[in-house]
Specification:
eight-stranded mixed β-sheet, 16 strands, EC 3.-.-.-, alpha/beta, hydrolase, disordered N terminus, elongated, Peptidase_M20_dimer, 409 residues, 11 helices, Aminopeptidase, single chain, metal-binding, 2 domains
Length: 409
């Protein structure tokens, strides 16, 4: 542990949970489930929560989602939400760990097994101590990975914020490249929005040996792909973040055929909501103009997916304070570099003020890599962060705290 970390409380009181929570994490890693199919995972989580003495557990939210409530013994107070995601990815695992996936073609390549295990560990600790006022809502979310509508969107649409009187909401994600025992966070936008688009390029097909008798949608599609890059390089402020990537291309099935149409698909990422409007408008205009210039045309679909993940000021200060009280001042980077990767926790922090923090996974391969694995050494830090966050925000007054101690004695 670095000297700077010693300024904080440290994770000593959470180390006794490490062995047990590691077993849970590895079980979840061995048994990954795709989005909205997390039935075994949800069963596992529900059984653990019940074994901790948590009585208010609601299942079946957004299909396989769970919200469980822990009431503190420190008197009346607000309810804060702590969220972990549960789904895996359609990736063939190559980590070669003893606890590798037993479900071929599906793996926990984004650390959601660790997220779920850390929140379960915090739930066990909080359920046993209850040294806080108000209430903690444990949100176990399905389907963070898929395109719209995701599990976070559905849970918000099904009214969990009002239904459980959640006033603030917090999320956490593993981050390779940050040392274990350290955290990264920033005020304002921390992750980008995600929109997706489809362009069908309409031409007139024919034999590949007589291209002059066709309107070749492959050539048009290639020009559109190149043309879209100028929307970023020549039409947006270089100080603003906008990414337009064409990621799918479907054309003819035969070597000697020029098809009637070509299908292009891609994604748009930005940190500025106004650039979403710009991208939708300008992608269509550019594609349409290029296609018509060659005698073709386009069909266009633009899907607004995940909004910008925005960290609200007060909640972010509380998150920073909780993390630093655990690991020390210098082990928390409060101005980490923003990423235009998207995260559907954004729907929750749109519905309620909230904050999203990254926890170090060490010098591992990146997430979504076939060899990725959550670092179990990070588990006590994640558990400790959740507990310190609750104890920071929902600190009981002295009278209630003494009463609670007498009851437990």
């Amino acid at each position: 542990m670095q000297e700077s970390q010693l300024q904080g409380e440290g994770v000593g009181r959470f180390q006794d949970l490490k062995v047990e929570v590691t077993e849970w994490r590895r079980y979840l890693h061995e048994n990954p489930e795709l989005d909205f199919q997390e039935h075994n995972t949800a069963r596992f989580v529900t059984e653990k929560l019940a074994s901790f003495g948590i009585n208010h557990i609601e299942t079946g939210i957004a299909g396989t989602g769970i919200v469980a409530l822990i009431q503190g013994e420190g008197g009346d107070g607000p309810t804060i939400g702590l969220r972990a995601d549960m789904d895996a990815l359609p990736i063939i695992e190559a980590s070669n760990k003893p606890w590798s996936s037993k479900n071929p073609g599906v793996m926990h390549a984004c650390g959601h097994d660790g997220h779920t295990a850390m929140l379960l560990g915090a739930a066990k600790h909080l359920a046993s101590t209850r040294n806080f006022k108000g209430c903690v809502a444990l949100i176990f979310q399905p389907a963070e990975e898929p395109e719209f509508p995701s599990g976070g969107f559905k849970m918000v649409q099904e009214g969990i914020m009002d239904r459980f009187s959640i006033s603030r909401v917090f999320g956490m994600h593993t981050r390779p490249g940050i040392d274990v025992g350290e955290f990264g966070i920033r005020h304002g936008a921390i992750m980008g929005s995600q929109d997706d688009f489809d362009i069908v390029v309409k031409g007139a097909g024919g034999h590949a040996s007589t291209p002059h008798r066709t309107v070749d949608p492959v050539v048009i599609g290639a020009q559109i792909i190149l043309g879209l890059q100028t929307l970023v390089s020549r039409k947006t402020d270089p100080l603003e973040s906008l990414v337009i990537s064409v990621t799918k291309l479907k054309a003819a099935q035969a070597y000697n055929q020029i098809p009637d149409q070509v299908e292009l698909s891609g994604t748009v990422r930005t940190l500025a909501s106004g650039l979403r409007d710009f991208a939708e408008r300008e992608i269509l205009a550019a594609a349409q103009g290029i296609a018509r210039g060659f005698g073709g045309d386009v069909e266009f679909r633009y899907l607004r997916s995940v909004p910008v993940t925005f960290n609200h000021s007060e909640e972010t200060e509380l998150a920073i304070a909780a993390a630093r009280s655990l690991v020390g001042h210098d082990a928390v980077d409060d101005n980490m570099k923003v990423t235009v990767g998207a995260e559907d926790f954004a729907y929750m922090s749109e519905a309620r003020p909230g904050s999203y923090i990254f926890i170090g996974n060490g010098p591992t391969v990146p997430t979504h890599h076939p060899a990725y694995d959550f670092n179990d050494e990070a588990l006590p830090y994640g558990i400790g962060y959740w507990v310190k966050l609750v104890e920071t925000i929902l600190a009981p007054d002295n009278g209630h705290a003494r009463k609670a101690e007498m009851v437990r004695a």
